[in-house]
Amino acid sequence: IVDPGGHPADEDRRFEAALRPRRLADFPGQPRVRDQLGLLLEAARRRGAPPDHVLLSGPPGLGKTSLAMIIAAELEQPIRITSGPAIQHAGDLAAVLSSLAEGEVLFLDEIHRMARPAEEMLYLAMEDFRVDIIVGKGPGATAIPLELPAFTVVGATTRAGLLPAPLRDRFGFTGHLDFYATADLAQILTRNATLLGVESTPQGIDEMAGRSRGTPRIANRLLRRVRDYAQVQGNGIVDLSAARAALRLFDVDDRGLDRLDRAVLDALCRRFGGGPVGLSTLAVAVGEEADTVETVAEPYLVREGYLVRTPRGRAASPMAWAHLGLTPPTPSAA
Ligand code: ADP
């Protein structure tokens, strides 16, 4: 709630390490991706060979990292974790690749942010389990091929559309993660409340689940804030009144929209007459990076029908106007 960027804060990280589901069977929600992955992993197990490379795409906080860890656990293989922004040179990637063990899972988070030369090295490594190490510079440079043991890349991206086609094609399977149903979030929250040793009521759980933007990471954050509230101001029980009061305090509205969501809708309606307006103009108006608006706020606003993407830019739907308590301009006036 505090960080509208959707990136895990330190508190998230500590908490997430403790609460991450470890097995596919313990992973609620995403039934399609779970079934698809289950099949892929079982087939690999029976063949006794590493599965195809896996690409997971979807908004932040939906479980891409968790699924990567589950894949490694199900395969009973170690996992190496790195991310696109950490790989700025082909040499960074060569160092990682050349130290992988047979069957190991390599998790590449934010894979769309990897530097281009590293990307090219990755294609070859994924396809042929080989890298060419360039020795020397200029006309005298030579490529020394290095054989790699078979491994599995699990790539995660919030922007599958940004991956160059040759890289996308190297993944035998792509799982698209979608926002979670409220019932799945309620299941996750109930389990996590128990793990945290906090007493909760079904009404309190449902209130948080319905206001978590379909996102487990946000659900977990709300749970911690409601727990704080219950322990400091209430009777220690995560119930409906604690949930309502804490969510009001932390600026989560009754539809689960947070400060950034509302700032986007507010700018769209009040400053740009409902749009359409270009993404970068909209981002400047709310004081955020265009990428944050596009990957963090927008997917949920679009999915819930508040915001519409048009060829000429972003536009507010009648629901957005209604949510802000504003009257849209009449079409005849335009
Ligand atoms: P991403 O990599 O997509 O940003 P993570 O895998 O880091 O998301 O998940 C964020 C948090 O949400 C973690 O605490 C994780 O335990 C929790 N989480 C995500 N998906 C689930 C799920 N299906 N069930 C339980 N917890 C989940």
TrEMBL record:
Query: Positions of the region Small ATPAse domain (RuvB-S)?
Result: 181-251
Its principal location?
cytoplasm
Where does the AAA+ ATPase domain lie? 50-183
EC class? hydrolase
> Where DNA is bound, by residue?
309, 314
Q: Where in the cell is it found?
A: Cytoplasm
Q: Which domain of life is it from?
A: Bacteria
Give the enzyme's EC designation.
Answer: 3.6.4.-
Subunit notes for this chain?
A: Homohexamer. Forms an RuvA(8)-RuvB(12)-Holliday junction (HJ) complex. HJ DNA is sandwiched between 2 RuvA tetramers; dsDNA enters through RuvA and exits via RuvB. An RuvB hexamer assembles on each DNA strand where it exits the tetramer. Each RuvB hexamer is contacted by two RuvA subunits (via domain III) on 2 adjacent RuvB subunits; this complex drives branch migration. In the full resolvosome a probable DNA-RuvA(4)-RuvB(12)-RuvC(2) complex forms which resolves the HJ.
UniProt remark on domains: Has 3 domains, the large (RuvB-L) and small ATPase (RuvB-S) domains and the C-terminal head (RuvB-H) domain. The head domain binds DNA, while the ATPase domains jointly bind ATP, ADP or are empty depending on the state of the subunit in the translocation cycle. During a single DNA translocation step the structure of each domain remains the same, but their relative positions change.
Q: Which family does it belong to?
A: Belongs to the RuvB family.
Matching HAMAP family, A to Z? DNA_HJ_migration_RuvB
Q: What is this protein called?
A: Holliday junction branch migration complex subunit RuvB
Please give the organism.
Allobranchiibius huperziae
For this protein's source organism, the top of the classification is:
Bacteria, Bacillati, Actinomycetota, Actinomycetes, Micrococcales
